[in-house]
Amino acid sequence: MLQIEDLYVDVAGRPLLKNVNLVVEKGDTNILFGPNGAGKSALLSTIMGFSNYKVTSGRIYFKGKDITDAPVNERSKMGIGIMSQRPPNIVGVKLKELLEIESQEKSIDIDKMAESIDMARFLNRDINVGFSGGEIKRSELLQLRVQKPDFYLLDEPESGVDPVNMAQVGTTIQRMLCAQGDCRANPKIRSSALIITHTGEILNYLDADKAYILCNGTIMCSGNPNRLLSEIKSKGYEECIRCKLANPINL
Ligand SMILES: Nc1ncnc2c1ncn2[C@@H]1O[C@H](COP(=O)(O)OP(=O)(O)OP(=O)(O)O)[C@@H](O)[C@H]1O
């Protein structure tokens, strides 16, 4: 569904991502680990097509189409949706106004959907203005639920979320990815996702298929998400750099 080939990206005139190769198959949930500043959010922003991230070499394919030069709105129409780590405040635009635009031609009861994740009282507030960390996450989730993309880019869904709200966020993401029917019986009907996490808490709610470790702007390792997480916790990220040096990456 998503294929990234030998991608190099500059940010603010400086090289940041290099030689990134990554594939997310249809219906798969993939995880992206990596230390602070490694370039994980930059990679998600580049996939979404945000203008600060300039592809200098390599290609991005989505549903078989080359989207490397496609604008954000086209990627969104094709079915890519993002939950950003720090979405901007949008002064003068109410959350409900944005949701009404996103829900055009879809039969969605915005009030009911907002109620279901405790966001009804935010509908008439300017987007993100004064929202707490957890409220921003729920607002982003609500927008994604209305947008209903085929491919989810989720940047640290658990950051800033208290344990009680984490259960709600985790369950909501699980349901979002599996909105088409019985995903246990047929995993391919799941929506696809690429999720950044530091703590791995989201793995308690999802069946993740594969994880990548991004260090210094490049993918160093890939493998089973829970196994990689426990290696990171016990040995840190140094081990993944050694693994890259010792073995060519198995994508
Ligand atoms: N728009 C930008 N302008 C300048 N520098 C940027 C920009 N976006 C990212 N960077 C820099 O690129 C580097 C990678 O940032 P990025 O946010 O992708 O890291 P990350 O792996 O997501 O880190 P974290 O785990 O801390 O969120 C950082 O040094 C950051 O300061």
Blueprint of the fold:
Blueprint: E1 2-11, E2 14-24, E3 29-33, H1 40-48, E4 53-62, E5 65-66, H2 72-78, E6 80-83, E7 90-94, H3 95-102, H4 110-116, E8 126-127, H5 133-147, E9 151-155, H6 163-177, E10 192-196, E11 210-215, E12 218-223, H7 225-235, H8 238-246
Parallel strand pairs: 3-10, 3-11, 6-9, 9-10
Antiparallel strand pairs: 1-2, 1-4, 4-5, 7-8, 11-12
Helix pairs in contact: 3-5, 5-6
The protein binds adenosine-5'-triphosphate.
Written account of the structure:
Keywords: ATP-binding, Nucleotide-binding. It is a single chain. The protein has helices at residues 40-48, 72-78, 95-102, 110-116, 133-147, 163-177, 225-235, 238-246; strands at 2-11, 14-24, 29-33, 53-62, 65-66, 80-83, 90-94, 126-127, 151-155, 192-196, 210-215, 218-223. Helix 3 runs parallel beside helix 5 (133-147) and helix 5 (133-147) runs parallel beside helix 6. Strands 6-9-10-3-11-12 form a six-stranded mixed β-sheet, sandwiched between helices. The protein has a four-stranded antiparallel β-sheet with strand order 2-1-4-5. A two-stranded antiparallel sheet has the order 7-8. The chain has eight helices and twelve strands. It is of the alpha/beta class and 251 residues long. The radius of gyration is 18 Å and the shape is globular. The protein binds adenosine-5'-triphosphate. Adenosine-5'-triphosphate is lined by residues 11-12, 16, 34, 36-42, 52.
